[in-house]
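User: Here's a protein and a ligand (NAP). What would the complex look like?
Assistant: Let me lay out the input and then the predicted complex.
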Amino acid sequence: MSRLKAADRPYDIVLFGATGFVGELTAEYLAAHAPEGLRWAIAGRGEDKLRRLRDRLPAAADVGVLLADVADPDSLRELAAQARVVATTVGPYVRHGDALVAACADAGTDYLDLTGEPEFVDLTYVRHDARARETGARLVHACGFDSVPHDLGVHFTVGQLPEGVPLTVDGFVRVGAAFSGGTLASALGQFARGRQLRAAALERRRHEPRLVGRRVATPTGAPRFAGEVGAWALPLPTVDAQIVRRSAKALDRYGPDFRYRHYAAVRRLPVAVGGVAAVAALVAAAQVPPVRRRLSGRLAPGEGPSAERRARSWFSVRFVGEGGGRKVFTEVSGGDPGYDETAKMFAEAALCLALDTLPVTAGQVTTAVAMGEALTERLRAAGIGFRVAASR
Ligand SMILES: NC(=O)c1ccc[n+]([C@@H]2O[C@H](COP(=O)([O-])OP(=O)(O)OC[C@H]3O[C@@H](n4cnc5c(N)ncnc54)[C@H](OP(=O)(O)O)[C@@H]3O)[C@@H](O)[C@H]2O)c1
């Protein structure tokens, strides 16, 4: 509790977008798990909706309510000035996110989001990393299922391997779950922005310092049957491998020559083929604006899987790490990845930044770099499995 300072800001944590699907789950998690004395608030654009949410929370009287709208940059600056940590669920981030990152970078406020949009992460790096380093703000993207289990899972796996030698890690993701309107809108939006995504990645490469004296690579693996996990492995071109790459670049512990490959793991070949075909069809459909709008409309913002459906959902990410004559098999696992566990990861990351003693970092940083072991321990204590399955 030593880091709970009554100091300069009225709130330790402000949750922006608290009235959305993941926002509500995160508010409920914080209400149930925030330590005594934590000063926190829910924020959004609709006062009535926020007050109704607050009234449903336990110990509601202690939770502040703040109004802000992404269309009103002044309201975002005010929000950033009132908090030590701002956690936002207001996506799609490439459409709604930039002004809040700017406000937090400027105010020296730690910032967390749930983006899985690589274009957004690259744009905010180019625009706001330097300012955040000046003010000391930590800008931590992808604090949900994208990309916490992968980033911290690789960090945990590397920790089981020898130091100072070349290391390779492969990650194999399996999930059984459904998704929300907000996630569908973000995914379709990303699929339609291939050109902008490549341009943002190029712009980032122009700004980012080159890694000197070490090598880090995240090649796209080829589809194959992976005997080590007993499943078909399909390259997974999500933001996760990029986040892992940035952690590996920032942390010498990943060794002089580090390689990570990221896969979806599917037990049965027909399911693998069907899955690839379904994603390809969705990517193609997203290129046609009226079709994209119709698909988006099938799940409204604020809608998502029921509590019963979420209770049956699960995820498992298996890692195979090798180096210095040692091979290790690890696993990160939990319940509903997209919502219940995402809300848990997001809330615990906010608590970790607000309360824990962490390495001194600033600017755009990953969960492994900013919070590494402290967040892993929090998540373990909250029921997410991090285990070594075998090693030799
Ligand atoms: N990384 C992951 O693993 C992961 C998992 C789940 C979700 N996500 C991402 O998280 C985001 C939220 O998902 P969701 O399902 O919770 O979406 P949602 O239910 O549609 O919620 C969106 C939130 O944004 C708010 N909002 C929209 N426009 C706003 C504006 N102009 N000013 C202020 N607030 C505004 C909404 O407020 P109102 O209530 O007033 O409309 C709502 O609180 C999406 O981008 C999704 O892709 C990521």
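Summary: Confidence is low (pLDDT under 50) at residues 1-6.
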